[in-house]
Amino acid sequence: MTKFIFVTGGVLSSLGKGITAASVGALLKHSGKNVGMLKIDPYINVDPGTMSPLEHGEVFVTKDGAETDLDIGNYERFLDSSYLKTSNFTTGQVYSSVIERERSGGYLGQTIQVVPHIVGEIVDRIKKAGKGHDILVVELGGTVGDIEGLPFMEAIRLMKHDDDVEGTFFIHVTLIPYIKAAGEHKSKPTQHGIQELRRIGITPQMIIARSEKALPKAFKKKLSVSCDVASDSVIEALDAPTIYGVPLAFMQQNILTPIAKELELGELTPDMEQWDALVKKIVSPKEKVTIGFVGKYLELKESYKSLTEALIHSGAHQDMRVEIEWIDSEKLENRSDEEVAELLNECDGILVAGGFGSRGIEGKINAIKYARENKVTYFGICLGMQLTLVEYARNVLGIEDANSIEFDENTTNPIIYLIDNFLDQAGDSQLRTHNSPMGGTLRLGEYPCETKDGSLIQQAHNGEKLINERHRHRYEANPTYRKQLEDAGMIVTGESNGLIECVEIKDHPWFLGVQFHPEFTSHLQTPSPSISAFVKAAFENSKH
Predict the structure, then answer these.
(1) Can you point out the beta strands (E) in 304-442?
(2) Best label site of 156, 235, 335, 415, fewest CB within 10 Å?
(3) Cα torsion for 371, 376, 377, 380, to the nearest 10°?
């Protein structure tokens, strides 16, 4: 049977519950355990797919095509694993399931209530996520005391007494504020958070204490006594130079000892040698390269979380710091070639990321034109690839009104268009139109891509002809223009069931556009091949 570790948060949000859960999971995995991960989100949205990146950060896409919370990305990056849609669920999904069952007579006319029906559905989903794993680490989103989180708190409380559950362990992540004027740490917010948990019926067995300054021994003892937690279960979580240093900091404090004791896991000795070596290269690399990151969600950098982390992974394996020069695509609009060059000329490589909507599009096209004409290493991802085709059609083929119908429905030259039918992951035909609901018209999840011999994309993947990558987009490259583009020097080097997946251009040191999102499969220990190749090319082709 599966054992469960529950991670809750107190005082305020953004304390690092996701990194805590991922770090505990990574240490358990490196100790030889089969670890599953689950993020529970109390918001009522069915998933974050239609939420603004500025509202919620990045939407992470799983192998099986679920649009999930960005913490699932952290889990995959830390545990070097692929998780499925069962690793994330929301209040919206829980209520939808219960209401649908009630409408179809599944409850035999009972009055549907939060307890037991909603809470029971939550417990069932947690157990389902744990199947096949020795241990399931469950992160509960939000903060203790949030009204929307109460049914989830009740569910995890009940699991302590469930005969089908072999063991439970509760970790509470909390803020320890330091009052500069008084010169001391304060424990009262943590005590109040623990009291609220106890009122609900949950007694945490471990406290992860987030603090900017190291905690004195006497203060840790005070926390231990006042919160009824064993002294070896008060774990410091100080600000780290890199999030990948957190598991090592936890390991130095023997975080697994009380967990192993309570859950009867035996002696756990995680092998973190390779991890430690990579962290050292992140913190003190030998080389550096500057990547111009052209995007439009720069107000919240977490909108591009997987991509920025993928650059870190690639840099670590090449003993190189990847410095990101953030460039707002709107600031590149209505600029002369000279002005664009002035904004981009310090970049060793240019990356145009994905996105939705028309804002900042012309600025991205100007960045692509600069990279193509000045032989600067270039990588376009998803929308970045689509705009690569638009830029080439406009400026090389001379098709002035070349565009995507996403931005101009009436363009007479739709280089990027919306196909009415496409095959989904199961091989079934799906229909997409302009009027289809936003949440149900994307090509999502992992699809195969057949690469062309001798291409940059195939070289990046060590000569593999067939690769599998994840997608999140509505629009596709229009094959009507393929011959014109190829005759003019642009090569299609990757295809998926007849759809254009990768493009490159002749007579350029390194220029690649991909329809998929390679960042979704990049992990610290196994970085994305194409992003690693981009970083390497940017360094080799730079002005060093």
Answers:
(1) 320-328, 349-352, 377-381, 403-404, 414-417, 421-423, 429-431
(2) 335
(3) -10
pLDDT in tens, the chain (544 residues): 899 999 999 988 888 999 999 999 999 999 999 999 999 999 998 888 777 766 767 889 999 999 998 999 999 999 999 999 999 999 999 999 999 999 999 999 999 999 999 999 999 999 999 999 999 999 999 999 899 999 999 999 999 999 989 999 999 999 999 998 988 999 999 999 999 999 999 999 999 999 999 999 999 999 999 999 999 999 999 999 999 999 999 999 999 999 999 999 999 999 999 999 999 999 999 999 999 999 876 666 778 899 999 999 999 999 999 999 999 999 999 999 999 999 999 999 999 998 877 788 999 999 999 999 999 999 999 999 999 999 999 999 999 999 999 999 999 999 999 876 545 555 555 554 444 444 456 889 999 999 999 999 999 999 999 999 999 999 999 999 999 999 999 999 999 989 999 999 999 999 999 999 999 999 999 999 999 999 999 999 986 5
Cis peptide before 116 (omega within 30 of 0): yes
The helix or strand, by DSSP H or E, that contains position 48, with its residue range, turns out to be none
162: its two tokens: 């469930």
Q: Please name the residues in contact with 406: beta carbons below 8 A apart, sequence gap of 6 or more.
A: 356, 357, 358, 416, 418, 474, 475
Residue 211 and residue 185 in contact, taking contact as beta carbons nearer than 8 Å? yes
Domain boundaries, the chain: 3-160+236-277, 285-415+477-540
Task: Fill in the DSSP letter of residue 111.
Answer: P
> Bridge-partner residues for 167, per DSSP?
3
Fold classification of 285-415+477-540 (topology level)? Rossmann fold (3.40.50)
Decide if 342 is catalytic.
no
Catalytic residue among 227, 382, 449, 502: 382
**Token code pair at residue 352:** 């145009």
* Sign of the torsion angle spanned by Cα atoms 74, 75, 78, 82: negative
Which entry of 185, 471, 517, 523 is annotated as an active-site residue? 517
Q: Which amino acid is at 468?
A: N
Query: Does 285-415+477-540 match 3-160+236-277 at the fold level?
Result: yes
517 is catalytic: yes
Catalytic, out of 67, 236, 391, 519: 519
Pull the structure tokens for residue 172.
Answer: 């509470």
- Pick one of 3.40.50.2300, 3.10.290.10, 3.40.50.300, 3.40.50.1820 as the CATH number of 3-160+236-277: 3.40.50.300
Give the whole-angstrom CA distance, residue 40 versus residue 239: 25
Decide if 457 contacts 387 (C-beta within 8 A).
no
Model pTM? 0.92
Give the three-class secondary structure for 343.
helix
- What is the Cα–Cα distance from 528 to 341, expressed in whole angstroms? 29
